[in-house]
Amino acid sequence: MDWQTLATQLFPGGHDIVERDNFLSGSAQVEGQAVAMIGTTGHVPIGIEIALAQATAILRTVQQHPGRPILILVDTQGQRLRHRDEMLGINSYMAHLGKCVDLARRKGHTVIGLVYDQALSGGFITSGLIASACYALPQATIRVMGLPAMARITKVPEERLTELARDNPVFAPGPENYLRMGGLHGIWEKDLAQQLAQALAECIPEDRRMALGRERGGRLLAQPVADAVRAGGDVRAA
């Protein structure tokens, strides 16, 4: 789904979103409430320019519109892998973006991420995945790393990883697996405007990703290990 069609379905009350070099920004109305909107399109890799543009838009919202909800539309093939970006410190730009999202949440902004096309690696982690709550459309492509690349990095045969992916969502791509792991709060179908309004109304400050992963059977040890660390106990007991 292209972003224009998505925006029409999400915001029947109207919007003023504009696209510039695959970066989306603007505002929209959700049941009479103003919502700030940023995002990406065209499977664009997140380089220093878009990371900085997203961070700037978030900080501007925090400064000029205290408490206004923020929606992040995600369509990215991940972090841009160029020598230029690496030399200019793309890791610092990505970290800055993540910190800006965290600041907005701490300042009382509800931040909702919505993966409507692709969401890969660092481009997803520092945007939708770090939001107060993250959702996806059924046809979205989500993965931290493709199995062929994972096989090269881990030296585990791709056939073995494919076998593991059948039962373990950590190895498997797709919104259903990220839902099981707690990375997604839900998968939106049918009335997208109603789903967005409900997500904004029900969002809570508490981060329940680990708890959701345990409840859904996708990440069984993350919550017990985190609890053991907080309690100063032996993580092996978890």
Concise overview:
This protein has helices at 3-10, 48-64, 83-87, 90-106, 121-125, 147-154, 158-165, 175-181, 192-202, 209-215, 222-231, and strands at 18-20, 23-30, 33-40, 70-76, 111-120, 133-136, 141-143, 186-187.
Can you characterise this structure?
With 238 residues, the protein is an alpha/beta fold. The protein has a domain at 3-137 and 188-204: 2-enoyl-CoA Hydratase, Chain A, domain 1, CATH 3.90.226. Helices cover 43% and strands 19% of the residues. The protein has eleven helices and eight strands. The protein has helices spanning 3-10, 48-64, 83-87, 90-106, 121-125, 147-154, 158-165, 175-181, 192-202, 209-215, 222-231, and strands spanning 18-20, 23-30, 33-40, 70-76, 111-120, 133-136, 141-143, 186-187. Strands 1, 2, 3, 4, 5, 6, 7 and 8 form an eight-stranded mixed β-sheet that branches. α2 packs parallel to α4 (90-106). The longest helix is centred in the N-terminal third of the chain and has 17 residues, at 48-64. It is globular and about 50 Å long. The model has no long low-confidence stretch (mean pLDDT 89).
